[in-house]
Write a structure and sequence with these properties.
Blueprint: H1 3-14, E1 21-30, E2 42-43, E3 45-58, E4 63-68, E5 74-78, H2 92-109, E6 115-122, H3 132-147, H4 154-169, H5 176-183, E7 188-193, E8 199-203, E9 209-215, H6 223-242, H7 256-262, H8 269-293, H9 297-313, H10 320-331, E10 335-341, E11 348-354, H11 358-373, E12 378-382, E13 389-391
Parallel strand pairs: 4-6
Antiparallel strand pairs: 1-3, 1-13, 2-7, 3-6, 4-5, 7-8, 9-11, 9-12, 10-11
Bound molecules: alpha-D-galactopyranose.
Length: 400
């Protein structure tokens, strides 16, 4: 679909197309640094070129109508009754964002949120761990705030989107996804410290290689509850570490040397493994930033492999599907790095593959993966794109 077709769809659904604006927010991939964000550690994600488009227009009767070209639900709600409803499904994300926008505006200014018609269209595979929810959140935050006449800095929208997910939707995620989706830049990864939000862009120069995302296509069940269990285990680990180092605020601040001095107090082996993953993963991200800046792709790939092994053996968030993809991918000649990306428990891997080996990679990995799991994987060659933005009239780039 291109912009004209999207407008046509909007007209079909809402019966008019005058005055509409189009916004876009991408999905994201994380190269290394999993389960470090809610521990105040480092991550290294990038925005993708696929994402969510929203076609929007202002209303003045306080009604927000949310529709999607992907799912047959049409949700309508009044600005004064923004409450979570299970049956509203995906529309709880935009409702949560709107509710946060209104709180941010305060009693005086919130009157500017007067209603809107919104049509969403997305091409991020659902449940693949590529942040389709953060993408909906950011595209909504940007579109609705602009329609209401506000110019909210992107970093504020990022934080607001995380609050919406934590408080309204009830998923206890960290800041990585919203940050990557909001702040992404074409061709660049973001090295982010998740507690201070200090960050820098690092160019991803992988001439001769491709970034291949492989979807396990496994239905993710219980992912949220296991995610919360891991968070809780990390919190317990931190408390134990604080008995020796009271100044430590988060696991992301524990160096390897400190870990060596303190590991004996973590007598619970499960908690000790979780904490070890976070601390070592954090060290790996710090090294990965350096080697990516120095363009040492082989070392970068080796770090991805160690990251997956740690997520498998210490953090235990992979499972047979992700592990099968990982094992098969690592055996392919020309694949110099591969690891799961996102929360785990299903979802996707990301691999660094020599351009001329990509076809063989897909063939071999698909065959062996299906043999092992009975599932058929999907491959995407990933391009690193920009973060959330308005699509201007002259751009023709929303073809997908
Ligand atoms: C999900 C969460 C993120 C992060 C990752 C794991 O994607 O939304 O905040 O915790 O899992 O690294």
């Amino acid at each position: 679909m291109d912009a004209a077709e999207l407008k046509g769809k909007f007209a079909e659904v809402f019966g008019y197309e005058e005055g509409i604006r189009i916004f876009f927010a991408p999905g994201r991939v994380n190269f290394i640094g999993e389960h470090t964000d809610y521990n105040g550690g480092y991550v290294l994600p990038a925005a993708l070129t696929f994402g969510t488009w929203s076609v929007v227009n202002q209303r003045e009767d306080g009604v927000y109508r949310f529709c999607s070209t992907n799912i047959e639900t049409k949700i309508e709600c009044n600005v004064s009754e923004l409450i979570y409803k299970k049956e509203d499904d995906w529309a709880n994300y935009p409702k949560g964002v709107l509710s946060e926008l209104i709180q941010l505006a305060g009693p005086e200014n919130s009157k500017q949120y007067q209603g809107a018609d919104i049509l969403y269209h997305g091409n991020i595979p659902n449940g693949a761990g590529l942040s389709s929810s953060a993408s909906i959140e950011l595209v909504t935050g940007l579109a609705l705030s602009k329609l209401a006449g506000f110019d909210i800095p992107m970093i504020e929208l990022v934080k607001l989107a995380q609050r919406a997910e934590n408080h309204f939707v009830g998923v206890n995620c960290g800041i990585m996804d919203q940050f990557a989706v909001g702040m992404g830049k074409e061709g660049q990864a973001m090295a982010l410290k998740c507690d201070t939000l200090e960050f820098r862009y690092i160019p991803v120069e992988i001439k001769g290689y491709k970034l291949v995302i492989t979807n396990t296509n496994k239905k993710r069940e219980l992912a949220d509850s296991k995610y919360n269990v891991r968070r809780n285990e990390c919190e317990q680990g931190l408390e134990m570490i604080k008995t020796v180092f009271p100044h430590i605020q988060s696991l992301g601040d524990v160096s390897y040397e400190e870990w060596e001095k303190v590991r004996h107090v973590l007598t619970d082996q499960v908690i000790s493994r979780r904490v070890e993953h976070v601390i070592m993963e954090n060290e790996r991200v710090i090294t990965a930033m350096r080697v990516l800046e120095g363009n040492d792709l082989h070392e970068f790939g080796a770090l991805m492999i160690r990251s997956h092994e740690s997520l498998r053996d210490l953090y235990e968030v992979t499972g047979v599907e992700l592990d099968s993809l990982f094992e098969e991918a690592s055996k392919v000649d020309g694949c110099i790095g591969t690891c799961m990306t996102g929360a785990g428990f299903g979802g996707c891997t990301v691999s660094l593959v020599k351009e001329e080996a990509v076809d063989t990679f897909k063939e071999i990995v698909a065959e062996k993966y299906t043999e092992k799991t009975g599932l058929v994987p999907t491959f995407y060659i990933c391009e690193i794109g920009d973060g959330a933005k308005e699509k201007l009239k002259e751009e023709k780039s929303c073809r997908f």
